[in-house]
Amino acid sequence: MKACMVIAGLILISMYDQVFSDDNDSVEKVEEQSLTSELVNLLNGTYFNLNEKVCQLQRKVDAIERVADPDHQCECNETEINEFKQAVSDELNAFSKILSGFENQMRLLQNEQAELRELIGGGDSDEDASTTTTSTTTPAPRVCYPGWFSSPEKCYYVSSTSEKTEWSLAISRCTAKGAKLVEIQTDKEATFIMSRLPSRVGNTDILYTGRKRNDRDDWVFVSNDKMVDTSVRTWARGNPDGGSQRCGCTRQSNNFLMLDCFCIGHNLFYICEIER
User: Which parts of the sequence belong to the C-type lectin domain (predicted)?
Assistant: First the structure.
């Protein structure tokens, strides 16, 4: 039985080396984990089958050696010896079939590994080596959070009644959401937002936006100090009216056109935006 276990161990070791001889190849982790799992399962099942077959063969060989030993007193006749030989031959055939099946499985796994490498790495054929192809992957648009609404370009959040606040704090609250105070670029965007406002925002309710008047009296967007393009974004009638109203706002009764508002002293609705 000791010899049986040694033989089985040698078989397992040689197979392990064969299977993992490509460990030095650079392959994506997810591929390696998947293939390793399959190979381990295959090795485990094959090991137990081979171990049993090797032990059976060893027992048969031991029996034949005892029969063939001239010092061994055996009442076995030639028929019994031939039966032993046939049994060993049958076991060898079974063992051969198992090995053949194992080799087929190895080939299938190697083909699968090659296909995965082709998909992950783009292959290493001569054609690939001589041809450089540049592909651009377009990232999937951001999925807007619950309670937000979306356009193809942005996600929007309208504050609740209890969140109404001054302009500077509105900026901070949008920032805390990973967003910014809405910067309405065009009248078209303004019309879209107005069409999606929740019912809590009344027709005359004022909403803060991400515009401000800088020290040069230019109206710019808060995030980048870029000047508002008045060719595509229109001021409401009578605005801007100067004075100390230095922050941007809007409301439905003015068709969501631009208004200038006081930055402090008034708690108003506000809108946050995130680029998709």
Answer: 151-273
